Structure of PAS domain-containing protein:
Amino acid sequence: MQRLLTSFVTHLIFARRVREEESETTDHPDLAALLLLWHRLCGAAPLPSEQELVPASFSPWIANLAIVDIEPRPLRARYRVVGSRLSHLAGRDLAGRYVDELYADEIRAEAMAAYRQVVAERAPHYSHRRFRFPFRGFGYHRLMLPFAGSQGMVDRVLVAIYPDTPFETAADWQRYVDPEDLNRWLGYGPPRPNRRGPGRQ
């Protein structure tokens, strides 16, 4: 009974997930400062060069950053470098993994749509997403910043993610979610098998 209740609640979470804000600007103080730096790095060019992606320039944010390589045709996004806080929140090392081979369909579709928008519009993308539980809510602020390669195309995207709650590790939020649903949604393991036998409904 407890397991059924937990599974019901975790399904309810995704039914009540909302995108609270999506824009090119942010009022999150750390992300606002990062966006200002990105504009300074642009100078007179439409985009800053990927050569500007040096750790010394981003030291105040580095633990919350990921550098993502963009492959153009077909468009794919691969984590190149992932900051320590993001790795702790994910509960695993994402470096070297493609976004389209992680997560469940809905989450993967949202992430790839955001990458496609950043590449097509050659502009920053900010979103604030919330996951609501009956007794607790949490979410994250995400800022995606494009950088140009040698041909002027968007070759890399700098992604900054800040939780809007004081979570530090994956265990802080995973305890609210049924483990099998976590596997299915976030790609931590194979999908939950269908337990219905032949002729069962």
Helices lie at 2-15, 29-42, 84-90, 105-121, 170-174, 179-186. DSSP finds six helices and six strands in the chain. Residues 1-21, 176-201 have pLDDT under 50 and may be disordered.
